[in-house]
Amino acid sequence: MKAIHQLATVEQILARYQQDQPLHRFLAVYYRQNKQMGSKDRKIASRLVYNYFRLGHALQQESLINRLIVAEFLCNTLSNSFIAFYKPEWEVSIHLTLEEKLALVKREFSDFNVLAIFPFHYHLSEGIDTTLFCSKILVQPDLYIRVRKGAEKRFTGTLLDAGLNFQHLGEQTYALANGTKLDHLFTDRGLYEVQDLSSQQVGNYFKPQKWDKWWDCCAASGGKSLLLHQQQPDIKLLVSDIRASILDNLDERFLHAGIRNYQKKVLDLTLDQSLYLHDYEFDGIILDAPCSGSGTWGRTPEMINQFEEHTIQFFQDLQRKIIRNVISYLKPGKPLIYITCSVFKEENEAQVAWIKEEFKLQVESQELIKGYQHKADTMFIARLVKA
Ligand SMILES: C[S@@+](CC[C@H](N)C(=O)[O-])C[C@H]1O[C@@H](n2cnc3c(N)ncnc32)[C@H](O)[C@@H]1O
């Protein structure tokens, strides 16, 4: 009976969701309007809907109930009331490996193709294992935390006291199950940042020197700047973004992190900004570019449904406009750190090749950080040095 009710709820959510906003935002409003749903009902409904979107474009010809059964089976490792009710014969196999379960689904649905989960796979960057990447969309990424230097002991102790499961991956990096709530455990808001594992790793490419002048030119709420500042607090930092509101978030995060000495500008970098930047020169520029975000769709699988292939070209053009408008502010011999959270070659290695050709920068290093292998986002980073 419960499962029948769950199915009806999912049908209603999918019918109402216009796919014009992130799913989590839609669900928050939906649950507010449906107060009769208890927290367990909400949790199950969210799981079912998210898993449904994790199936991407696979089995599109199948009925909703069949797609939900397959999604629930592939995305869960423990049995649940939905599978028990609608597909009891699969219950005993739910703990199998993803590979084994994919084979089992294929036996029942001969049309099933794991590559159809992510139909844009023809655009994947070099080095990505296409089949593995597509199958890992079925696995929800973890929650990653970067803890302030020196606060690791306190952070670990609080997690232990709260009885939370976690992994301490490196000095300041922790992994927890997605959805773990930490806010109520810590009053000091600068003690930790939520930052994906791959996003933390890009920091290895910054290498700032004391008294350097750096520009985080698409800074948003400052994730990369915080990482940069942690590596070298004695730098002169300019942060900019096209959105003033997101820079307000940056101010707040910087305040909590104790960073007071920085300059901030609202700039549209598709336009020539020489009027405002004519006497600026930098020892390092971080360009964490606006991009498809396709490396993060494990967290927002509804995007696979919403994305249109031509958008890749849109982002490539946008990124080139921005690159063109920032490179002249780089001192000779100094790095441009180009970052995307995209898995598309047009936004990644093709951009690096273009920068090299167009502006004669040397590629010091580039890497596709394969987060899909570690329940994390996939990102691309290149360190290019001006001649
Ligand atoms: C990937 S996000 C940056 C994330 C950020 N570095 C962080 O670690 O939190 C890209 C940012 O580029 C900004 N952006 C988009 N178009 C822009 C433009 N024309 N000029 C400047 N910034 C732009 C967006 O507002 C967005 O905040």
TrEMBL record:
- RNA-binding as a keyword of this entry, yes or no, is yes
Against InterPro entries, the record matches this protein to: MeTrfase_RsmB-F_NOP2_cat, MeTrfase_RsmB-F_NOP2_dom, RCMT, SAM-dependent_MTases_sf
Keyword Methyltransferase assigned: yes
Please give the start and end residues of each transmembrane region.
Answer: none
Q: Where is the active site?
A: 341
Gene3D superfamilies noted in UniProt: Vaccinia Virus protein VP39
Q: Which domain of life is it from?
A: Bacteria
SUPFAM superfamilies membership: S-adenosyl-L-methionine-dependent methyltransferases
Molecular function (GO) terms for this protein are: RNA binding; RNA methyltransferase activity
The residues listed in the UniProt record as binding S-adenosyl-L-methionine, with positions renumbered to this chain, are 241, 268, 288
Residue ranges that the Swiss-Prot or TrEMBL entry lists as coiled coil: none
Q: Which UniProt keywords apply?
A: Methyltransferase, RNA-binding, S-adenosyl-L-methionine, Transferase
Q: What is this protein called?
A: RsmB/NOP family class I SAM-dependent RNA methyltransferase
Q: Which organism is it from?
A: Pedobacter puniceum
